[in-house]
Write a structure and sequence with these properties.
The structure is a single chain. The termini are far apart. The protein has a seven-stranded parallel sheet, sandwiched between helices. The chain has helices at 12-19, 23-29, 37-44, 61-66, 68-76, 86-92, 112-117, 132-144, 162-168, 183-192, 208-214, 234-237, 257-278, and strands spanning 31-35, 47-48, 51-52, 54-59, 80-83, 101-106, 122-126, 149-153, 177-181, 196-200, 206-207, 221-225, 242-245. It is α/β, with parallel strands linked by helices. α8 (132-144) packs parallel to α13 (257-278). β2 and β3 (51-52) form a beta hairpin. The mean pLDDT is 94. The protein is built from 13 helices and 13 strands.
Length: 280
């Protein structure tokens, strides 16, 4: 079999993909990059209203051979497959050690109104979260805990930041995410949908263990998670039905954002499953 023809490093397609590393170009084109086999596999199987999410795939011949099933799925989804050498992949990629697959994907965020209309039972709201790695990890935690949606407020990081996409390890493609929602609007809409709002804060008045023991966490719940360094401002805490701290039973000073989010989301998920089992 003849070797595939490699795309030129000077190709306009390469230049267009490279520009997606910058937020303003992502917003203008409504496209973002998904790197690595897991993210590309998930993108290939995902669709948005405009059509297949994955529109273009850059791959080295070696990666195409190693991940033939993913490249095949990309083709089946209608994506244009571009073969490139490692230097081109490295030029497009934002990782130190690219894995030979970089996908160009359509934006996939959902309207906030659609999320509340679906009557969610577990939601993560990221308010003032600025670190893209943390945002992507919380999205992954929400996905793993079985959350129905994630909401990024207008003061939070870009959902499509390459670090956020990598940190989610494919969870971007698994659950609805609304972006750019003012926190007041998010809280009001979720409350109107019958969702209890809990603010996660290390200085919270209420203890997560006490909430679980009291049996108050089995209903629809949204957790608000704040900034990595300074948590939630008072005006945001005031919007919540309760401000809850994760108890520290050992000598650790605190938990980081993603760890605290995982604890809170799994606590809610477990309480909700227990309530469902008790229901006739």
């Amino acid at each position: 079999m003849a070797a595939p023809e490699l795309i030129s490093p000077r190709s306009p397609r390469v230049a267009a993909a490279r520009r997606l590393g910058k937020r303003n170009f992502r917003g203008k084109e409504r496209l973002f990059l998904a790197e690595g086999p897991q993210a590309v596999r998930e993108a290939a199987g995902h669709r948005v209203a405009a059509g297949p999410t994955l529109v273009e795939l850059f791959t080295t011949p070696e990666a195409a051979e190693r991940y033939a099933d993913i490249v095949g799925a990309a083709r089946d989804a209608g994506a244009q497959v571009q073969f490139a050498d490692e230097s081109v992949i490295a030029d497009i990629s934002t990782t130190v050690t690219p894995q030979g697959l970089v996908g160009v994907c359509r934006f996939l965020d959902s309207p906030f109104d659609d999320i509340v209309r679906a009557r969610p039972t577990l939601v993560a709201v990221l308010a003032h979260v600025r670190d893209p790695g943390n945002a992507g990890t919380v999205l992954r935690c929400a996905d793993a805990a079985g959350a129905d949606a994630v909401v990024l407020t207008d003061a939070s990081v870009d959902l499509y930041n390459p670090k956020a996409v990598r940190a989610s390890v494919g969870s971007h493609f698994h659950l609805p995410v609304a972006v750019g929602v003012p926190v007041e609007q998010a809280v009001r809409g979720l409350k109107d949908a019958g969702v209890r709002i809990l603010a996660a804060d290390g200085a919270g008045r209420d203890d997560l263990d006490d909430e679980l023991d009291a049996g108050t966490m089995g209903g629809p719940t949204a957790w608000i998670f704040g900034n990595e360094a300074w948590g939630l401002p008072e005006e945001t805490r005031a919007l919540a039905d309760a401000v809850v701290r994760v108890p520290i039973h050992g000598k650790a000073e605190s938990l980081n954002l993603a760890t605290a989010a995982a604890v809170c989301l799994y606590a809610s998920a477990r309480a909700q499953r227990a309530d469902r089992r008790r229901s006739p």
